[in-house]
């Protein structure tokens, strides 16, 4: 496969920079075929040793969603989202990297959803591992690394400020400004 042209590169970078966390969703249901397309992309996320330790639990049941909404106050976007996805990793399959592996898969889900006109928001789940395991009946060796609310966006958030490269990028050693 050849490298994208300058025009395509600009479009791809624009696509990445255009993704936003969506917390308000239209009531419209997301067709399961579209959800499957998103998850099919997530299967190709990188993982250490290509172990692919993840599972994806798509939650559409209102009772289960309601329980997930109550895990903490920042889970509220799931209440009006048509669905949620629990991204969980088997810590026995990938004991040293399961969190990063699942984070990669979650990011692939968010980018694929964005490409298909859907919105997502990452809901922090690591402080509520046992609660989520119980709600979606995950075995104890599966750690829910991400809970994503997903649906058709009902908002267009503006970009939030970002740190400058000077604050976060260094050359060879920490503190050596990248010039």
- Give the low-pLDDT segments: none
What's the domain count?
1
Number of strands: 4
Q: If you compute it from the alpha carbons, what radius of gyration comes out, rounded to the nearest whole angstrom?
A: 18 Å
Strand order of the largest sheet: 1-2-4-3
What assembly state would you assign to the polypeptide chains in this entry? Answer: single chain
- At the first level of CATH, what is the class? Alpha Beta
Describe this structure in words.
The protein has a single domain, classed as NADH Oxidase. Helix content is 37%, strand content 17%. It is built from 7 helices and 4 strands. The chain has a 4-stranded antiparallel β-sheet with strand order 1-2-4-3, sandwiched between helices. α2 (32-42) crosses α5 (98-115). The longest helix has 18 residues, at 98-115. The two termini are 32 Å apart. 33% of the residues are buried.
Topology:
Elements: H1 6-18, H2 32-42, E1 54-59, H3 62-69, H4 77-80, E2 83-90, H5 98-115, E3 119-124, H6 129-136, E4 142-151, H7 165-168
Helix pairs in contact: 2-5
Highlighted features:
NADH Oxidase; four-stranded antiparallel beta sheet; 179 residues; 37% helix; 7 helices
Task: Give a brief rundown of this model.
This protein has seven helices and four strands, in the order H-H-E-H-H-E-H-E-H-E-H. It is an alpha+beta fold. Helix 2 packs across helix 5.
């Amino acid at each position: 496969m050849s490298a994208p042209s300058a025009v395509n590169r600009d479009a791809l970078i624009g696509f990445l920079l255009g993704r936003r966390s969506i917390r308000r969703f239209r009531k419209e249901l997301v067709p399961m075929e579209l959800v499957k397309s998103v998850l099919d992309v997530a299967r190709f996320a990188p993982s250490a040793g290509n172990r692919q330790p993840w599972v994806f639990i798509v939650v559409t049941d209102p009772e289960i969603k309601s329980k997930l909404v109550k895990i903490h106050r920042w889970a509220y976007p799931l209440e009006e989202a048509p669905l949620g996805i629990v991204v969980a990793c088997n810590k026995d399959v990938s004991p040293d990297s399961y969190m990063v592996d699942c984070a990669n898969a979650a990011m692939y889900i968010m980018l694929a959803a964005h490409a298909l006109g859907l919105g997502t928001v990452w809901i922090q789940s690591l402080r509520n591992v046992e609660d989520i395991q119980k709600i979606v009946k995950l075995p104890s060796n599966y750690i829910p690394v991400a809970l994503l609310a997903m649906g058709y966006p009902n908002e267009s958030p503006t970009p939030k400020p970002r740190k400058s490269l000077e604050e976060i990028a260094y050359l060879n050693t920490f503190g050596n400004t990248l010039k």
